[in-house]
Design brief:
CATH architecture of the largest domain: 3-Layer(aba) Sandwich
CATH topology of the largest domain: Rossmann fold
Number of helices: 20
Radius of gyration: 23 Å
Helix content: 40-55%
Bound molecules: D-mannonic acid
Mean pLDDT: 97
Length: about 500
């Protein structure tokens, strides 16, 4: 079986769509930090659609943690296949917009030099919530984060995203090159402002003059990004090989739906993203809030409850009528009233989400979505709960999502088997759970005291406590499936 690479594009397999531009003419204009599956199914596809028009926006990807993407894509000249899947079938396409991938750990200097070169105009990021080294509850830089203290002590060897951005910007300032745009494509609230605050604070700790230069010169557009991208499995690799006749070490599986809303605020120009289907908007925050609360809030709730109830995939969980009713009720009764979206049909948006979640071809694991909950809960569930509390309105389904997270992070499932909890706070949370034993109230008290998740207001809120604790008791007594059934019965 031939391996995917540039020479294959001259004679591509019949069934696959290939780049419609001369890859040899493409030059890098974008560095993308955090070159995971999401970026490769999302921004890299929009850019691929635009390179025929303007080949100066090629992407160089970088991994900050692991070299596995580079290892997979380097022998393929950066090429990879995306497979768009739903009940109707699969369509495949080879994406060429990623020119190469760097491993930041071993190629730090090369990467910083590229970021500080004249042709480079955008640095985009999908480093996940925890990659911002911030306090998720406040959105401020966590100045005690080990990567941040390291990067402040060794600025030219930065390993965190904020540290690398600031070092590259410092070099551009010194070389009088002008700034690049910093574009977060992560699921954070006000991701542009949050990134700007974190980067500027980090710079101020290095050099107040540099921080001022960044404030004056660097644009941080907010974006709302959306496409469901499950982790690739070996079965997916085999499926791609069978479908295309070409071996791809890391193809990407995704759904037909894709959405990108971008604030038009760039330091040094941008590709015509709108011509590839993106929406350019003046105010992106309402879209972000809608997506984080409706899609991601539902996703996390489904992930914790679904995992506990024994559902491996999101589609299986929403295939259970009680779970589907819970999520529909959560969106309709508890999330939608907190959103103000003139001109957007929220009911239609909700119905489309339920349909996307039930895509039988996607195999999106509840365990995958359950990861990093301590970083996700604030913007997915807790902000909505705060709005409901302020309006004196009920939030029982949202509270069930929080209770399910608390039950999940104990690291032990309903049959006593251990759960592989992946979270930056996993050790602390499991210690809290061990101290609590099988006392739900002690578990609640221990977890709610994590101020980076719950802030300083929710721990003292009696209504929050009562709502979450009632569900947590129920999860221990009758389990997730029964609890969902009871909540849905009302
Ligand atoms: C998911 C998201 O893993 C998760 O936490 O909720 O990755 C989700 O699939 C995307 O945000 C969809 O755009």
């Amino acid at each position: 079986m031939p391996r995917l690479n540039a020479s294959l594009l001259a004679n591509p397999p019949q069934s696959v769509r290939v780049p419609d531009y001369d890859r040899g003419a493409v030059t890098p204009g974008i560095v993308h930090l955090g070159i995971g599956a999401f970026h490769r199914a999302h921004m890299a596809v929009y850019v691929d659609d635009l390179l025929a028009q303007d080949p100066s926006w090629g992407i160089v990807g970088a991994s900050l943690r692991r070299p596995d993407t580079k290892d997979a894509l380097a022998p393929q000249d950066g090429l990879y296949t995306i497979a768009v899947r739903d009940a109707a079938g699969t369509s495949t396409r080879i994406i060429g917009s990623i020119l190469s991938v760097m491993d930041a750990n071993t190629q730090r200097e090369e990467l910083l030099a590229l970021m500080a070169s004249p042709a480079l105009r955008i640095v985009s990021l999908t480093v996940t919530e925890k990659g911002y080294c911030h306090d998720p509850a406040t959105g401020e830089l966590d100045e005690n984060h080990p990567d941040i203290t390291y990067d402040l002590a060794h600025p030219t060897e930065a390993r965190s995203a904020p540290g690398m951005l600031v070092e590259a910007l410092a070099r551009r300032r010194a070389a009088e090159l002008g700034a690049f745009t910093v574009m977060s494509c992560d699921n954070l609230p006000s991701n542009g402002h949050t990134t700007s605050r974190i980067v500027t604070r980090f710079a101020a700790l290095r050099d107040p003059e540099l921080a001022r230069w960044i404030e004056d010169n660097v644009r941080f557009p907010s974006t709302m990004v959306d496409r469901i991208v499950p982790a690739t499995t070996d079965a997916d690799r085999a499926m791609i090989e069978a479908a295309t006749g070409v071996a791809d070490a890391w193809p990407i599986m995704t759904e037909p739906f894709t959405q990108w809303v971008i604030e038009d605020s760039f330091s040094a120009g941008r590709p015509q993203f709108e011509q590839a289907g993106a929406t350019i908007a003046e105010d992106v925050e309402p879209f972000e809030r809608m997506k984080l609360r409706m899609l991601n809030g539902s996703h996390s709730t489904l992930a914790y409850l679904g995992f506990l109830a024994g559902y491996q995939y999101v589609a299986d969980a929403v295939g259970d009528p009680a779970f589907a009713a819970l999520i529909r009720g959560l969106m309709t009764e508890e999330v939608m009233p907190t959103l103000h979206m003139p001109g957007v049909d929220l009911g239609a948006y909700r119905d489309q989400l339920l349909q996307r979640f039930s895509n039988p071809a996607l195999q999106h694991r509840t365990w995958q979505i359950a990861m990093d909950g301590s970083q996700k809960l604030p913007q997915r569930l807790l902000g909505t709960i705060r709005d409901r509390l302020a309006a004196d309105q009920p939030f029982t389904r949202l509270a069930l999502g929080v209770a399910a997270w608390m039950r999940y992070v104990t690291g032990v499932d309903e049959s006593g088997e251990s759960i592989d909890v992946r979270d930056p706070l996993a050790m602390r949370m499991m210690a809290i759970a061990a101290d609590a034993g099988d006392d739900p109230e002690a578990l609640f008290d221990g977890l709610v005291a994590l101020s980076e998740v719950f802030g300083t207001d929710l721990p003292d809120n009696a209504a929050f406590r009562a709502a979450v604790l009632a569900h947590l008791d129920s999860l221990y007594e009758i389990g997730a499936a029964q609890t969902v059934a009871e909540v849905v019965r009302g």
